[in-house]
Structure formats: structure tokens, C-alpha cells
Amino acid sequence: MYSYNITFVTAPDAGERFIEWLRASALPVLMNPEYGACNPRLQTVVEAGGEKPGPDHGLSMALCLEFSSEEKAHVWHDALLPGVLGDFNRKFGPHAAFFVTLLNTLLL
């Protein structure tokens, strides 16, 4: 099993607007059944390195999706993710960022 993690960082007060955008715009694209993404979950960072984010920090939320193969994750990434990330930048930039990570599950 492979997990694709996209961590989005926005202004601290953009949480509700981000979740609305994710539900209405991003997830319908990213969860296109043709590409095999499943089990989406959204998590928020509550602590990093033993420190809790303060009011001067951005709001970090991680969207994790699962894939049955590395190849399916790459095809999904190439076909769907650039458009969604461009839309994220237009809606939440210029003070927004993201990073992506592909993970391979070793133990269940």
C-alpha cells in the first residue's frame, strides 16, 4: 500500500475556507475513481518537534490518500495534482505553501 501525503500550509485564519475548498473543489478532482485514490483523510498538525504552533505560525493540514501501487500514485500525481495545487496557490497564496510525500507502507 502506498500513501500520498500533501501537507498544505495556510494563514492561521484560513482553516474553514481551506476545508470548504478541499470538499467542494479539490476532493472531487483528486478522488476521481479512474485513478485509484482511496481512503482520504485530513489531519491537522497540533505539535511539531514537541512544540505547539503559535499564532504566528501557519495552519498545517495534511491530506493523505492511499493507492494500491506506486505506479497508480504516479499516474494520479501527474494527471490530477498539478491542477489542484495551482488552484490552491491561486486561492490561498501568496502566503501559502505545500509539500508532497509518497510513502510505502511496510507494516500494517
Q: Specify the biggest β-sheet.
A: 4 strands, antiparallel
Low-pLDDT parts are none
Helices and strands, in order, run as EHEEHE
Query: How helical, in percent, are the residues?
Result: 25-40%
Please tell me how large the radius of gyration is: 14 Å
Question: DSSP helix count?
Answer: 2
Strand content: 25-35%
Distance N terminus to C terminus? Answer: 9 Å
Explain how this protein is built.
By secondary structure, this protein is an alpha+beta fold. Helices cover 36% and strands 31% of the residues. It contains two helices and four strands; from the N terminus they run βαββαβ. The protein has helices at 15-30, 70-92; strands at residues 2-10, 38-44, 59-67, 97-104. Strands 2-3-1-4 form a four-stranded antiparallel sheet, with helices on one face. α1 (15-30) packs antiparallel against α2 (70-92). The longest helix has 23 residues, at 70-92. The mean pLDDT is 93.
Keywords:
108 residues; alpha+beta; 2 helices
Blueprint (SSEs and pairs):
Layout: E1 2-10, H1 15-30, E2 38-44, E3 59-67, H2 70-92, E4 97-104
Antiparallel strand pairs: 1-3, 1-4, 2-3
Helix pairs in contact: 1-2
Quick structural summary:
The protein is an alpha+beta fold.
